[in-house]
Amino acid sequence: MRAEGAVGNDKPKSCGSGNTMAAVTNSIFSPELAARFDRLVTLYPLKRSALVPMLLYAQDEIGYVSEAAIQEIATRLDLFDLDVRSVLSYYSMLRTKPAGKYNVQVCTNISCMLRGGYQILDHCKKKLGIGHKQTTPDGQFSLEEVECIGACCWAPAMQVNYDFHEDLTPAKVDTILADYAAGKGKDVK
Ligand code: FES
Asked: Closest ligand 1 atom, CA of 112?
């Protein structure tokens, strides 16, 4: 996780409609991500279209979308901070506070609900000892109840970071969580 810091930048050169980019001289992001952002903003007719991808990439690198990230992204896209915050608050997959190393998202929407989604959620709560949008004291897991994650055909389903786990049962959840805790989860890096 990178430390937050002030973003050095020039004034925006336009109002988010062109492809010119406000210069960011002291990015809070890694050089690789900063270069990716430099390129990303040139790919869309309207540079504000890069906002959601930028927020996701920022979250992937920092662990959440920090104040400094909001400011830098606003600068890069010639937007007001408020424009960024409006989008940020709309999407439930974006967060402004750190989550656990493994973010467990359990779907309780209709298909999953009918096939035991709430049972899976309750089981995760008991197993991890935390509730919705909480993180275990060791920072290993966080838990969220979420809307449909697009795995309805294999309900009940949950997502851990970017990996899907389907046809869940409490016993299967135990194995999945144990694998992550042991560093053997699907997307363990
Ligand atoms: S309803 Fe749960 S994945 Fe669609």
From this structure: 2
Structure-token pair, residue 32: 């690789």
pLDDT tens-digit map of 120-133: 999 999 999 999 99
Pocket test for ligand 1, best of 148, 159, 164, 167 (most atoms within 8 A of CB): 148
Strand runs (DSSP E) across the chain, as ranges?
102-107, 134-135, 141-146, 158-160, 163-165
Indicate the CATH number for domain 102-181.
Answer: 3.40.30.10
Render pLDDT for 40-62 as a digit per residue (tens, 0 to 9). Answer: 999 999 999 999 999 999 999 99
Taking the CB of residue 20, how many other CB atoms lie within 10 A of it?
Answer: 13
- Judge if the beta carbon of residue 140 lies within 6 A of ligand 1: no
Its pTM stands at 0.75
The number of residues making up the chain comes to 189
Q: Where are the domains of the chain?
A: 11-88, 102-181
Q: Which pLDDT value is given to residue 124?
A: 98
> What does the pLDDT read at residue 13?
42
